[in-house]
Amino acid sequence: MQPQPQRMKRFQVLPCAALRPYIDRIWGWDYRGGAALPLPALLPGTGAELYFHYRQPFSYTRGDGPPLACETGHLFCLRRDPLQLSAARDLGFIAVRFKAGMLHRFTAIPGRELADRVLALDDLWERPGQALQRRLSYAATPAQCILLIEDFLCAQLRSDGPDAVVERAMEMLYRDGATLTIQQLAERLHLGRRQLERRFLSVSGQTPAAMKSLARFQHTVRALMLDAAAAATDVALAQGYFDQAHFIRNFRRYAGAAPQCYLQGARNKTHFYNTSRDDSGIMPAPDHYF
What we know:
The chain is α+β, with helices and mostly antiparallel strands. The chain has 2 domains: 9-156, Jelly Rolls (Sandwich); 164-266, Homeodomain-like (Arc Repressor Mutant, subunit A, Orthogonal Bundle), CATH 1.10.10.60. It contains 9 helices and 10 strands. A 6-stranded antiparallel β-sheet has the order 1-2-9-4-7-10. It has a 4-stranded antiparallel β-sheet with strand order 3-8-5-6, with no helix packed on it. Strand 5 and strand 6 (68-69) form a beta hairpin. The longest helix has 19 residues, at 208-226.
């Protein structure tokens, strides 16, 4: 991993108690000037990420397509294809990382309509989203921004989701997908497998097997990015891949490249994989950050 630029500042905090069942963390980066900072390819996963930019928003490409610009506030919800962020010289954002299957607690848009889309804040919440963006533009510190964001999300939070059983199934697949089969999942939830699959598709637009595959991939890539000395095959087998060929095939499907090729490049760049919530990496935002 190359040394981080001296102008880079980072933070990550736990959300308020009311949001912790649904949101993993709130985190941010700040990079001012200097050489262009290479940004990562964002890979498909099980959750979603909401970004609030106070400097130049991301630009990105999909495949061989042209560069596209994000709005000041936007959501990434990647399920099938990676997305490459362009390098930036002046970067500043605060991000909200939703847990697997929990975004639907905050928006009425069905999960099947969110997959692989980049949505602006007002696409998700219309006038309330626009009002939040205006309030954030007047905030002076990250702490103030985080309070505004948390207040907004608490106001959008629904007391129940579209299907509590599917919500529970998503949490179980994310946590125990390396060892839990879809049949075992259905039995634990006292459902037939086909019934579980129909309900899962209705809520998320995915099958349980598709989410299990994504969770396994996500856990594997995260472990490999946070530990450069880790052996890819060993990590993959620990996460439930049958063998090396299964891992390579699955990796190519989601990352568009073989594991060795992807990791050689990605480990020498910045990435958005953060330390565990149980580690000392969860820190309060500094008082003067911008």
